[in-house]
Amino acid sequence: MTFRTYLLLFIFALIPPIVIAQFQPAPGYLDSDYYFAGGIQLATGQGFTEPYLWNYLDGTNSLPHPSHSYWMPLASIVAALGMWLTGQTDYASARLFFFLIAALVPPITALLAYKFSERRDLAITSGLLAIFSVYHAPFVGVTDNFGLFMLSGGLYFLVTTDLLSNPLALRNWFLLGLLAGFMTLSRSDGLLWLALTFFFAFWRAKKELPSNNLQPSSFILHPLMRIVPLIFLGFLIIMGPWYVRNISIFGSPMAPGGSRALWLHNYDQTFIYPPTLLNIQSFVSLGWNEIISDRMWALGTNLQSGFAAHGGIILFPFIVIGIIYYRKDERVKLAGLAWLILFLVMTFVFPFAGARGAFFHAGAALQPIWWVLAPLGLESILVSLRKRGIGNDQNRLVFRSILVMITIILTVFVVNLRLFDLGWGEGEENYPPVENFLVENGIDKDDVVIVRNAPGYYLQTGRSAISVPYGGEQAILQVADQFNAYYFVMEAEAAVESLKTPNDHGQFIYLGELDGTLVYKIEIE
After folding, report:
1. Same domain for 271 and 400?
2. Does the N-terminal peptide bond of residue 432 adopt cis geometry, omega within 30 degrees of 0?
3. CA distances in angstroms from 89 to 261, 430, 436, 459, 489, listed in the order given
4. Domain of 450?
5. Selection from 29, 17, 23 nearest residue 427 by Cα
6. Is the peptide bond before 455 cis (omega within 30 degrees of 0)?
7. Which of 17, 234, 368, 388 might form a disulfide with 141, Cβ 3.0–4.6 angstroms?
8. CA–CA separation, 491 vs 30, rounded Å?
9. What is the mean pLDDT of residues 59-70?
10. Is residue 95 part of a domain?
11. Residues 415, 334 within the same domain
12. Per-residue pLDDT at 524
C-alpha cells in the first residue's frame, strides 16, 4: 500500500460528510446541540460553563453551571478548535475538524486491514466500507463522538497490531494509555478501553510465561507488568486535568450525573427533578419483574442495533465469518470482548441509555475492525469455494464489488431516510418564532425558559433555558422556582397531559399557541 492510496481514500472520504452537511444546517438533535453549544462557550472564553441545563442529575441548582457533568467534553473541545481557527461561532466552523476526523477513518481502516492480510485489494475494500458507513453516515460529520470514537478505535487496534510482534515496546503501551484517555474524554464508557488495555497487558504476560510458572509473583515481576504504570500515565496525561476539575467542583473525579443513571425506571427519568429521587431504594421498589422486563426490552433493542448499526446489515454475516476465521487473532479476541462488555453494560446496567443510543455511540470504536473483518469473511468463503472448484479470481473481485455497491446503496437509503423522510432536526427551527412571541408578551432578556431541548433553544435564540423536568406540573413548578424560569414552552413531544388544553391551569397562565406548541407563563406563589 502506497501513501498515494491512503491519500486518495482520505480525499474521497471527505466527500460524503461534506455533501451530507449541505442538508444539515443545524446540529439536528440534542447530543449534537449540546456539544456545539459547549464549543461556543469555550470559543467565546466562557470556559466549561453552561447557561442552559439539559438534565438535573448532577444536582445543579442555578445558572450558569459547570458544563459536561453528564456527557464528556472532547466533542465540544474539537468544535471549539474549528471556531477558534475561523474566528466564527457558526455551525460550519464547529464541524471543520469533525470532517477531517471522519476522513481519517477510512485510511486508518485500510492500514489496519493491510496489516491483517497484506493485500491491497482487501485493504481498499475495507477503506471503502468505512467511507460508506450506512447508519453512521449521517452522523460522522456532526458535532458528536462518532468520528472521534472510530478514529480512536482504529488507532487502538493499529497499536495493538505492533504490540503482537514487540510486546515490550514501551512507546506503544504508552500510546494505548493515551488513546484510552482520549476515548474517556470523549465518552464515559471510554474507561472500558483502559480496562481492556490492562487486561491485554496481563494477557500478553500470561502468554509469555511457561505454563508451569503461573504464580502471582511471576506476573508482578514480568517485564510486561512494569508497563502498567506507563499505561496509566498516558491515560492520566489526558484525563488528569479533567479529574482535577471535577474534584474541585463536585468533590470527586467523576461528576455525579452519570452514576444516578444507574437507578432509572425509564428513559424519561433522565430529566427527573429533584435528582435525589433516583436512588437504590427507588430502584428496588420498582420490583424485579419490571426491572427484568426493562432489560429484556433493552436486550432486543441492542441486538437489533448490533445487527443493523454495528453490522451494517449486509456486512453482518461476513463480519461474523471473519471473526470465526480469525478467532485466534488477539486483536479479534480483544474486539469481541470489548463488544460483549459494551453489550452487557448497555443492556443490563444502563438499559435505557443503551437502547436509546449509547450502545450505538459506544460501538463506533469497533467499526474499523468490523470493516476489516467483513471483506476477510467474504474472502474466506470465496477461497473455500475456489478449493472446491467453484469460482475464480475474477469472481472474487465481482463479489467484493457487489458488497461495496450494496453498502453504498444502503448508505444512500439511510441518509435519505434520516435527512429527508424523517427530516433533519427535532423542531429547533420553531424556537425563533417562539422567542419572538415571548418577547412580544413581555419576557425580559435575562429570563429563563423551560423547553424540551434547552441547548437547542439557547443556540437558536441566545436565551438561557432548562429542560422540561420529569414529574409533571409539580416538577415544573419546582424547577421554575429554583431556576427563576417563569415561561414554559410545551411542545407536543414533551407535553404534560394536564396542560394539553389551551387555557389557564392554576399557576400556568396560557399565553398562546404556535404550530402546536403551547406557551405558558408560570406564576410562583
Report:
1. yes
2. no
3. 32, 21, 22, 10, 26
4. 428-522
5. 29
6. no
7. 17
8. 15
9. 92
10. yes
11. yes
12. 84
- The answer to whether residues 271 and 378 belong to one domain is yes
C-alpha to C-alpha distance for 284 and 262, rounded to whole angstroms: 11
- Residue 106: is it exposed, middle or buried by C-beta count within 10 angstroms (0-12/13-18/19+)? buried
Residues 416 and 432 in one domain: no
For residue 448, the 8-state DSSP code is E
What is the chain's length? 525
The count of domains in the chain is 2
Domain-located, residue 213? no
Q: Which residue has the cell 478514529?
A: 151
Using 50, 70 and 90 to split pLDDT, how confident is the model at 220? low
Cα angle 417, 422, 427 (rounded to 5 degrees) comes to: 145
- The answer to whether residue 49 is domain-embedded is yes
Give this prediction's pTM. 0.94
pLDDT tens digits, residue range 159-182?
A: 999 988 888 788 999 999 999 999
Quick check: is 180 in a domain?
no
Cα 98 from Cα 77, distance rounded (Å): 11
Record the cell numbers describing residue 201, joined without a space.
497487558
Instruction: Give long-range contacts, CB 8 A cutoff, 24+ apart: 308-313.
Output: 308/135, 309/134, 309/135, 309/136, 309/360, 309/363, 310/339, 310/360, 310/363, 310/366, 310/367, 310/370, 311/370, 312/129, 312/133, 312/134, 312/135, 312/370, 312/374, 312/407, 312/410, 313/134, 313/410
Residue 465: closest CA among 428, 497, 502, 498: 428
Check: CB of residue 220 under 8 Å from CB of residue 230: no
Q: Are residues 34 and 132 in the same domain?
A: yes
How far is the C-alpha of 439 from the C-alpha of 511, rounded, in Å? Answer: 12
What's the pLDDT tens digit per position in 321-350?
A: 999 999 999 999 999 999 999 999 999 999
Q: Can you tell me the distance from the alpha carbon of 299 to that of 399, in angstroms, rounded to the nearest whole number?
A: 33
Residues 438 and 333 both lie in one domain = no
Cell numbers given for 321: 465469518
Whether residues 405 and 442 share a domain: the answer is no
Measure the CA–CA gap between 183 and 80, rounded to whole angstroms: 18
Query: Which residue from 365, 419, 393, 417 is spatially nearest to 191, judged by alpha carbons?
Result: 365
